[in-house]
Amino acid sequence: MFEKKWQRVVFALVMILALSLGGVVQANNGQGNANGRNKDDGPSGPYIEYWDGRGTDSEKCELVGERGRPEEGWIHWVFSTKGQSTDAELVLKIDGEVVYTAEPGEPLNANVWHFYTPYFDLETLEAKIILDGKPGPGGGLVISDYCPGVVPPPVEPKEELTVTKTVETSFVREHKWNIYKEVVANDLLCTTHALVHLYPDGSGDELVKWIIDVEYKGYVDRDMKIYGEIMIKNTGQVDAVITGVEDWLASMPIDVDCPVEFPYTLPVGETLVCTYKVYVDTMIEGYNEVKVTTERDTYTAKAPIIWGEPAEELYKTINVMDESFLRFPDVEYREFGPITAESARFVYEEMVTWAEFSYLEPGHYYRHNRAWIVETGQEVISNLVLHIVAE
Q1: In sequence order, which residues have a C-beta less than 8 Å from that of residue 125 and are 6 or more positions away?
Q2: Tens-digit pLDDT profile for residues 238-277
Q3: Are 300 and 292 in contact (CB under 8 A)?
Q4: How far apart are the first and last CA of the chain?
Q5: Considering the chain, what is the average pLDDT of its residues?
Q6: Burial letters for 74-113: b for 16+ Cβ neighbours within 10 Å, e otherwise?
Q7: For domain 176-218+313-388, which architecture applies?
Q8: Highest mean pLDDT range out of 33-42, 338-347, 379-388?
Q9: Helix (H, G, I), strand (E, B), or coil: what is residue 125?
Q10: Among 2.40.50.100, 1.10.20.10, 2.60.40.10, 2.40.50.140, what is the CATH number of 161-170+221-304?
């Protein structure tokens, strides 16, 4: 390993000396002998041979992509044969100035030195090879193949639209209720009115009971709608001519509102926003799908239909008011609740006596009694009739 490294150091020093003397050798000897070999080369080297222009007719751009042949261009040099040389260097010059140096390339185990360099103008290019040992007989330094560069075919500007959409749902949930009221007097349960006979001896005095029943009947969802936006952004390299926008809701075609008329040219980088809104009878499931058509292509997007919480919820919680004219002209009010999505019963009692109402003339007196749900306005009436008996 050490001996090999020492040989390379010596060879590098020899190369530097050869480069410095190259101009002198060339001036004294021109381009060397007929095969380009320097007449002054001695048996121990370094050995220098000059390129004599052979191979300029070997343009082979079809080899692009193979070893050492990039599409930017290349020159593949060969020197045959290696002979006693174990290392070599290729030097390229233009107008006497070194523009590139190269070490041997693959295959290194062949009997020929291979070099791969970038492409240079062959009309002004000079080349020479410096070897560390005497070469064998052969063709000297030749261009095997070259290419000035492969120009890729022009790329047609690409049309591309990015289509996205939103799906929003909305509905109103209305809770349903019923209200009932009954009055109990003389052990009789009455729904509209009850009769109490008040005698002077108090024998008709009665503890009257009123019963209010509130029935929860569940809820109904209504005013259901699905709505959203369709965003069409031109993310391509050319203006896109949109010829139409189609939308389907759970496979049912629906109308789309776009602020332009079609065909419409959407410039690069711009966004077209369309909207849609559909009222439905039931909470349909599935997807909302859109297709945008241009003169060149079609683009699609879809989003699931998801029903969330109601936008508005009516009458989930209610309150009950009760109004009694038992002691007319005074009015007595009672409040019951709140009640949330469940049935409830409220009961209150009043002692009705002849002594309290003896100021009335004998006869029948209707005492209005009403209960209602504050939020919905539903009401029910259950009156009490006082029969004042004469003394």
Answers
A1: 92, 93, 94
A2: 999 999 999 999 999 999 999 999 999 999 999 999 999 9
A3: yes
A4: 144
A5: 88
A6: bbbbbbbbbbebebbbbbbbeeeeeebebebbeeeeeeeb
A7: Sandwich (2.60)
A8: 338-347
A9: strand
A10: 2.60.40.10
3-state SS assignment for residue 18: helix
Per-residue model confidence (pLDDT) at position 42: 42
**Model confidence pLDDT, tens digit, residues 147-179:** 999 887 788 899 999 999 999 999 999 999 999
For the chain, domain boundaries: 2-147, 161-170+221-304, 176-218+313-388
Q: At a CB cut-off of 8 Å and minimum separation 6, what does 176 contact?
A: 216, 217, 218, 219, 220, 315
Amino acid, res. 154: P
**Would 161-170+221-304 and 176-218+313-388 be classified into the same CATH topology?**
yes
Residue 29: is its pLDDT beyond 80? no
Two structure tokens written together for 170 = 């909305």
The tokens describing 204, both together, are 């008709």
